[in-house]
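Data deposition worksheet. Section B asks for the primary sequence of the deposited chain exactly as it was used as input, without tags or linkers unless they were present during the calculation. Section C holds the resulting structure in token form. Section D is free text for depositor observations; keep each observation to a single sentence. Incomplete worksheets are returned to the depositor.
Section A, Depositor: J.P.
Section B:
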Amino acid sequence: MTLCRLTLLAAPWVALTSAQVMAGTLCQPQYQFDIKSQTSFDYVKLQSAPQTSMVHLQGKLSLKPAQKGEEQNWWAIKADQVAAVQGKERMPLPSYEHAFAFKLTDKGLISNFYFAGDLDQQTRDKLKGLAYYLQYQRDISQISQEPDTLGQYQPTYQQVDKQLKMVKQHYSDFDRTQLTTFNRIEVLDSAHLITPDSCFLARREGNEALALSGTDLRFGSRQSYTLTQLSQPFNSTLYELGTDLTTWQPTTAELSEAEKARLAAELQQLITGQDITQIDAHTLSILLKKYDAVIGTLAPLMLSGTLNDKAQMRLFNALGQLDSATSQHLLSRLLHAEKQPLTQFRALRALTQGNTPLSQQATDMLLEMLVNGFSTLDAEVESSFYMTLGILLNNRDTSDTAAQLSQAITEQVALSESEGKTANLLTALGNSRNPQHEPVLTAHLSDSSARIEKASIRALGMMQTDTAYQNLEQHFFKSPQRNKKALLSALGNFQMSAKTSDTVLNMAVNDQDDAVRLAAINALATQQQKDAIKPILRQALQNETSRRNFKAIIKLLHSKEEKAQ
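Section C:
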């Protein structure tokens, strides 16, 4: 009898949910949802109670058929009247109310998503989570794996009268780009009861408990929910949008002030409520992603001296690895703390860790400091500022904002009337390792200032191009009396010509300055062909008076001949 009922019920579902029927204008269901979630994370090294949070969401969902250009089987979806419920209080959550769309396979599984706006990953995942409540397999005679925001899981389905009971068995694969800290997902509890309908579903309810674990971090979630189709329609702006997704105007994610306040309070508790030095910087950066929208609220804390030195260092490191637009902006803001040079230095170090394009907001702040001058109580931190600009260009060289910085640095080289600033700017161009700056660097080799000349030499030494070497070599023979050590070190970054190598060898043996001889020895040590110079250096050991130079020659003599790359 059960087999007969399965055949009778399963066949109509497949027929009724075909493209011709479901994509009809009559299929525009609306739902009331109620979701209760409890999450916890436990960092093993802290040896303290897990941090937990509870959220009770209520709201409404609307659906309608859509298409993406010529692509069919898309469904537009939007949540409305979403709020977090706590007792009798309701806090609106507009970040859930972005219209988006998903594509369904013939089996009823979601295969793709479409977002019209520039939404961050966390907001996208929240919206995806709402859509996945509408996903279930229309034909349970052949069960496939199903996707969700974590990855792919294997379900089982059982028919109970006119309902389907679905249970998640295990995750066969999960998205490691989103869950880099975890290596295992365990399904602790899973029970979902679905009432199918010719137009998606009439009702769905369920509960689930998952445990995600890694080497040191454990994350747990427990959820119960109901999704009920509404009998009375309500107005939603979803129905004012076109059915072609490509015509939708971009939107941006905005949190309500209440949401921001709640997240900011949670963030402060995360940073100050435990010893964050026990959390490695990579894991801490992942934990910070949840609070990306309010990362800027950490500025007063980081300037107040509340955090001890090690905690401050760990937080800066994590912010650098987070490398989001908001963290970049925060770090750029902290560069204005001219009376706290250590804070400025750590902010600079953090900015060098990322490789995503710099946000326009952070770029504008850096440009302002570049043009008007970087204020600090420490001259070394000032030099670090310009060095960091070059590293930013090297790490993020394909972005529009990097191009803005690059152009501004080049302009400042021409405008600068300060010897120190010019040298720092040339160093920045060298750290960018962009050959387009070689003409500017070469032009400053002949500068009357020894400091500017040295900066140009070092910068050209970073370029690793034939033209950079040729210009350095020409300068080496043209002006050998000034900045000898810098020239030798720069030439050592290249495979030198026989003529240059012979001259450097002569300096390694005969120059009167110990430091110059050492620079020459180190430059020769980088060469692939060293057999011809070893006998001469071995003989030079008899007369070498510097212990440091003596050790450098011994190290070179024991090095093996390297093959050309």
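Section D:
The chain has 21 helices and twelve strands.
The chain has a mean pLDDT of 90.
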